[in-house]
Amino acid sequence: MSRRCGLPWALVAVAVAAGWLGGCGEQVDYKMGEPQTGSSGASSGGGGHEAGSCGDGELAPGEGCDDGAAQDGDGCSATCQVEAGWTCSGEPSQCERLCGNGSIDAGEDCDGQELGGKDCTGVPGGFAGGKLGCKACAFDTTNCTLASCGDGKLDAGEACDDGNKSDEDECLMSCKKASCGDAHLGEGHEQCDDGNLEPGDGCSAQCAKEALQTVHFISTVQNGWSSFPIFYAGNVHAPQAPIVAAAAVEARGEIYAFALPSLPAYPDGSYHIMDVGTIKWTAHASIPSAFGALPIDTVEAAWEGPEPDKTQISLLAGDWVYSFWVDNKTGTITPAEQSPSQHGWGDGPNDPKTGQTTAAWAATDNNQGWAPSSTCNNESHAVKAWGAALSQGGTLHLYDLTSCFMFYQKLPASSFAPFTANAAPPLGKIGAAAYVGGGLVVVTQP
Hints:
The chain is mainly β. It has a domain at 214-444: Hemopexin (4 Propeller), CATH 2.110.10. The protein contains two helices and 25 strands. The protein starts with a strand and ends with a strand. 41% of the residues are buried.
């Protein structure tokens, strides 16, 4: 593994950005491999597009949208036209479903809580009262009641009538038979019922609780961890397949999450972008569209390396590291020169072993004091920029990006300050991590 003063080229970015790397010889353009001089000169391989072509994220004559993905089903079609039921704007285009935007558009009876002023008595069916709902932008009369409902007699228009005022048995107060998706919890046969049959929202189409991937964040040990499940219902950009790596592009306020293949849409894996400020998934595409021949099936972890104009994302896959540049202004992704390159981890006593890393991150600050001092050349040094790799079995390997440029300590992750805080995620389920905004973000598997 090539090093500058002992530093892997994949991690020089962090030290340069923090201003703590210097005086070691030639100017470094920290691509994976040998030192280079001058600009990155990113090649056009991987996911490059011809100028003006559909899928390049820029609107061209004849295109109704261009989200950079060139695929159907996300609002902007594979031919860069706005798909039915969607609206798209911007470059790259951001698309959202018309149904679900809270406004009643052409062809819709309602949208979410917006019913257009209607109630049960104002829709066809002869209802005397009850609560009108909205499902898939059409009126839902499940909880509307007929005048005769509740008298214990089965009348015309009633599916049942048990004469009681319970919505937890097989016959609802609306005189309709209980079923999964009616927003009433069926006693003894439903674990949940959120009023729809959409998977990916915490309650399955069979009204069973779903085990979903979860994002956890910590900024200070005192405040502890916050977490939220990754709901993908109604959001085509949210990942469904397991996330195996993540890296932050802090200049853009984004986290890139890399997910395993999912058929039939993404046989080679996918990447997903989350806006840190809004905690929303805003874009996604296939791995080959931007990250070329990255072998997602063998990716173990990723980390970030910021520069003023661009950020390097490095992905660990076995003995190799694949590196890419993300333009901090435009978000354009290009492969780094001399990538992939061998990393050489495993040589030192504190190094993680090849094939056993589950997550990694790199930090340009140590404001929380999470990383302890390191020792090299028989001298102790305060650590400012640092990195970490979490390996199977719950061992954390700390990397000094300030002075020693090596893995300088390994310790049980359970004793590392963030993981001692309240509501810490289970270490054995962590599959990805990123450092952003002075805090740590991790993703756990169900």
